[in-house]
Amino acid sequence: MRVSEITYTDTCETYQIHGGEAVSIDLKIGDHVEIIDVEGDQKCSVLAFDTKGACAINSLHWNTTPYSSQSSLSYDDSSNMLKAILESSKIDADATEATDIFDDLCPSDSRQDFQVEKDTLCVFDAKGGAMLVDQQSTPTEILINVTRANPKAKEDCLPEPLAEAIQDFRIPHSSAQSYKVKAGQYIQIIDVQGQQCSDFQAFSVEDLKNGVESTLDPTVTRSLMFLSYPAPGTHDKFYNQNSEPYVEVIRDTVCRHDTFGLACNAKYYDDRGYPGHISCTENFNKTLNDHGIKPRKNWVAVNFFFNTQVLECHTLAADVSWSRAGDYVLLRAATDLVCVSSACPDDTSPANNWNPTDIHIRVYDAGSNFSQGIDFRPDPQTIPTMTKETGFHKNTSKLTRNFTEYNGYWLALDYTNLGQIKEYWQCREGVAMIDLSPLRKFEIYGPDAEVLCQYAITKDVRKMAIGQVVYTAMCYENGCMIDDGTLFRLCENNFRWVGGCGSGGKHLREIAKEKGLNAFVKSSTDQLQNVAVQGPKSRETLKKIVWTQTTQTTMDELKWFRFTFARIGGEFGIPVMVSRTGYSGELGYEVFAHPKDCEAVWDAIAEAGEEFNICPVGLNALDMLRIEAGLIFAGYEFCDQTDPFEAGIGFAVPLKTKEEDFSGKEALILRKNSPQRTLVGLELNQNEVATPGDGVYIGKQQVGHITSATRSPILKKNIALCRMSITASEIGTEVEVGKLDGHHKRLGATVVRFPFYDPEKTRVRM
């Protein structure tokens, strides 16, 4: 069980099982267990064993009726994870039985529960395997809620160690402790109960031997990293006063800390009216004395989990920590260090939620191998997952180290020896490859799948042909956007949604439940990853390697916004789905494959494109391409307070021709008839690039703001997308982009036609 898959509340333990995986849980007499099929149509079995390893399935008292009672376990068909659990527990699989909890057609949020009548080891198996690109049998998550008859105390609800710990100790609240680590070792700082801050400082052992007390310096760190605080990835190190790295950030499950303030000290409490209050500075001095480090009135520190914000008025604001029980930061020592960590004693402010609690420290050997990542939560209620690698990461990581987190995955910003300008031109003039795997995919199927899609999106689904793709919007009832994306029609009642966020799938399931529709919506992002092949030479590249059956559309026949099922490498090659879609404004395709095949797919495309000097494209170059093409991006051109007309995709809302009702239709009619804002293109008169968020003015009046901006290599101009007041949206309107405070510095600009590049879309239609 991975750490991120277990969460604790006051009354409940929640275990997350990903589709195709299994988990074992030790249960005690009186415990209550609830099993939830989150997305529906997901098989799950439970096995039970007593303390001697004998089958104890009869000790589970079901309060509901499972799909089937006892059945023999098919060991050969079991997942590798289930086999490993049984083998490690020394259980004879051939002599055991299982209970199937859900059948194939259980709706989303289906639940079963039981009471435990004696101490039992229960194994839960979320069945499933790899999904082929032309199928929709994606395995999805199962949640297990365990309510203990004798629940653990909060302070005992620690996450499982990441590896075997060589140091493992608790820092009681309102105290601090020093400890030594060697170069390469890992330091895990854990917030035991949540919303507790921990000040951290480090000293070089070698410097201390020479009488030098050089410390980790937040100011130097901020300057070198150009961030408020480092994060896993490229900008991941904390430095001392001499710009020498002390620790590297490997993992961060909170991503909200403080490097501006000191560790709390006597003056801090005196000024607040609490003279004599114990402080982190005092606690630092006590424990660091053991290492011969001189006491100080003020300690500079990294204040992990401290929720500090820099406001527009340049003041610092602090609030309750974002951390939850079990959240942690994982650091790697760059040199031999003396470290000190505190469990902050501040009960006079929201910093520790007015109630100081413990901090826990674990140190792991340098030989441990931990992936870099941050916790990704699609929404606040979900169990977080650590940043993942896409199926193409083995290919891209050979070509760059400059990655950023996007949608829970690592994606390249640019590539070594190329850079965004070279990558851009290769896409415009030749052919390029772009890893877009983090786009969210959902399988939609069932008798009412068409009805569901017809209501959930703005385009007219009933007019879609099998093999067709439509670009469309998904809106709330108030007309504001949830997401934009593409809908693929696989069959009469089979669809695939590809969008930017996971909210789309959740919205679809909510509609299906509300309207009583017999349709399933299953997430398939982890089963279906995609690389975009874009540029005027993309067709010639793919024709070399893509094989299609006689009944499928060939590459020569594949029209714009159509897709085909194919193979790479001949009739018995890698199964893929190829769509004539993209995000570049050029002729282009997207190739979808299972993650296990992605490495081979990338290599095949790269080899086929060598003739045209094919190269990878990172997010920086992609941003230039999509802005020129007038393509919108979530969080920039739209949010949940923006309707499609304001986002510049009114063409995706056929109010005149789609007669049936759909989500947000009434509101969108009103919004279209009384528009307030719209998306326009701006051409700047100067060579300075605008920045998203810059205000756009006519005189003193702000009439809009920049959503995206870039220097266009092909147009040789600075361009920007702008959400503009209708009153200032006419082509030719002269405006100014405000820099600094919006008034001290202005950049002249003109409203122009957009898309800026190939507005008639002749290139994508080639």
Layout of helices and strands:
Elements: E1 6-8, E2 13-17, E3 22-27, E4 32-37, E5 44-49, E6 60-62, E7 68-72, H1 80-88, E8 97-102, E9 110-116, E10 120-126, E11 142-147, E12 165-171, E13 175-181, E14 186-191, E15 198-204, H2 205-209, H3 218-225, E16 237-239, E17 245-252, H4 266-271, H5 280-288, E18 302-304, E19 307-310, E20 316-319, E21 328-333, E22 337-343, E23 359-364, E24 373-376, E25 385-386, E26 388-389, H6 393-396, E27 403-406, E28 409-412, H7 419-429, E29 432-435, E30 440-445, H8 449-456, E31 469-475, E32 481-491, E33 494-499, H9 503-514, E34 520-523, E35 529-534, H10 538-543, E36 546-547, E37 563-568, E38 574-579, E39 588-593, H11 595-608, E40 615-616, H12 619-628, H13 665-673, E41 677-684, E42 695-698, E43 701-712, E44 717-725, E45 734-739, E46 745-752
Parallel strand pairs: 17-24, 26-28, 29-40
Antiparallel strand pairs: 1-2, 2-11, 3-10, 4-9, 4-11, 5-8, 5-10, 6-9, 7-8, 12-23, 13-22, 14-21, 14-23, 15-18, 15-22, 16-17, 17-21, 19-20, 24-25, 27-28, 29-35, 30-33, 30-34, 31-32, 32-33, 35-39, 36-37, 37-38, 38-39, 41-44, 41-46, 42-43, 42-45, 43-44, 45-46
